[in-house]
Amino acid sequence: VTYGPALSDAQTRQQWVNNAAAIVRATRGKGLVWTGGVRQPRDLRAPYDIVNLGAVLQLNGDLSKHALSANARAALMHAYTRAGTLRAVVAPKLPPAKRAKLAA
């Protein structure tokens, strides 16, 4: 869920709150990932600001914290393992020199 639009004008903020609340209700808060989606670094918010934003959407603190940290990390790890695995084994990408040493 991108919180960037919530920082603009009142009408966009109201639409964002309605849409984000619908997503929270549909998923029951499981598997959410908070992202900034902002164009300027000054529009980024502190982690606890985002946790409070989750409280506005009826999301408890633990699920909102997981959406900032654990869920985002899990999504990145899932993407990495899908791209870098063969038959569910993580295959590290070694430089050619180390690969040659291991092969010898």
What this model shows, in words?
The chain is mainly α and 104 residues long. The chain has helices spanning 10-27, 47-56, 61-68, 70-84, 96-103; strands spanning 85-86, 89-90. Strands 1-2 form a two-stranded antiparallel ribbon. Helix 2 packs across helix 3.
Tell me the series of helices and strands, N- to C-terminal: HHHHEEH
Q: Structural class, please?
A: mainly alpha
**How far do the termini sit from each other?**
49 Å
- Estimate the helix proportion, in percent: 55-70%
Major sheet size, sense and barrel closure:
2 strands, antiparallel
* Percentage beta strand: under 5%
Total E-strand runs: 2
Tally of helical segments: 5
Give the averaged pLDDT, no decimals.
76
Q: Give the C-alpha Rg.
A: 19 Å
Taking strands numbered 1, 2, ... along the chain, how are they ordered across the largest sheet?
A: 1-2
Query: Outline, from the CA principal axes?
Result: elongated
Low-confidence stretches: none
Produce a short descriptive summary.
Helix content is 57%, strand content 4%. By secondary structure, the protein is mainly alpha-helical.
Keywords:
104 residues; mainly alpha; two-stranded antiparallel sheet; 5 helices; 2 strands; 4% strand
